[in-house]
Fold this sequence. Notes:
Elements: E1 3-8, H1 16-24, E2 29-32, E3 41-45, E4 48-52, E5 65-68, E6 73-74, H2 76-88, E7 97-99, E8 103-104, H3 107-120, H4 132-140, H5 153-173, H6 182-197, E9 201-202, H7 204-213, E10 218-221, H8 245-252, E11 261-267, E12 269-272, H9 285-293, E13 306-311, H10 312-322, E14 326-330, E15 340-349, E16 352-354, H11 361-366, E17 368-375, H12 392-405, E18 409-413, E19 421-423
Parallel strand pairs: 1-10, 1-11, 2-5, 2-10, 5-7, 6-8, 7-9, 11-14, 13-15, 14-18
Antiparallel strand pairs: 3-4, 12-13, 15-16, 15-17, 18-19
Amino acid sequence: xxxxxxxxxxxxxxxxxxxxxxxxxxxxxxxxxxxxxxxxxxxxxxxxxxxxxxxxxxxxxxxxxxxxxxxxxxxxxxxxxxxxxxxxxxxxxxxxxxxxxxxxxxxxxxxxxxxxxxxxxxxxxxxxxxxxxxxxxxxxxxxxxxxxxxxxxxxxxxxxxxxxxxxxxxxxxxxxxxxxxxxxxxxxxxxxxxxxxxxxxxxxxxxxxxxxxxxxxxxxxxxxxxxxxxxxxxxxxxxxxxxxxxxxxxxxxxxxxxxxxxxxxxxxxxxxxxxxxxxxxxxxxxxxxxxxxxxxxxxxxxxxxxxxxxxxxxxxxxxxxxxxxxxxxxxxxxxxxxxxxxxxxxxxxxxxxxxxxxxxxxxxxxxxxxxxxxxxxxxxxxxxxxxxxxxxxxxxxxxxxxxxxxxxxxxxxxxxxxxxxxxxxxxx
Length: 428
């Protein structure tokens, strides 16, 4: 099992951190391959909650080398704050490694995120305003600054001059905002952040390949999810990188030959943050139950998430796009009190049944869910620890969902704790 990818199959917040944490015990490295600190995940270990944004989940294991790959955009301030938080709680971060080729998020990226989202008005995308999109835009425009630039002041200054020559007039003339001074940025990034970041910086491509070539297991951890992917998501309501499994190759510097297991993580229902189409969204008491029982508020932003029934049409598409070998289903216990549960197995688009994800966004916006309904189990699942301990109604729901998706459900989460997970198949 050299390379394993963990990827979200919905719109994020599926519980990837917990699955990554479960698998990490058998890994040599855990690699975050894209995204930035817009992707929070929460781990519960021995009743203690750890909320992470940038650092890979594997940091909680002393034998793991947690790696932030070249495909990630890094805010050094956030990174160092997270290191300090973990260190203060007894977690050793000395093994953390950050790619020298990862791009930096700078204050003007965050300002651009805020003012552009405000400028869009009712057409806003619902970004986290963390500067992620503008940082990736600069990367694509080849004017971005990278982690390695922190260690050469002349290069850092020269690149800033190019960027601020464009951005400062934009702030002043379009958004009526003050620009940024090079000396101030140099003092903060070179003077304060660079000395603390430097011990963690490495050629992470080399580290990953050394682990793989020595027979070690490497886990590639994606942030966000399939339907927030820049190419395959519900564009433009997406993130600015590629969370799908293919992103692990570019964002970590490996080829597909090194990956032999791709685990898709899905909730037993669906959630979404921000704008965009959502066929199974609920606006009733069941939707409120999912929010309140599932604690569906953003780890980073605190925003209430939109909730709805699980969508097997989306999951079948995620299976294809990611070449999923299996599904890890989380938060089954959130459905415990419901009289019945539903699975969307198709869409009605203008009177026609559609069993595949519509390729045209207008059709997806108009899609109405076609459901299969299952009896609720009305049983507390949080103490279940095996397939045999699950009630028959819960098994019927899982088996129906598995048929609708087309790949095995290998793991089922029945609570937030590290051990509250059931292995359903040999794939796990």
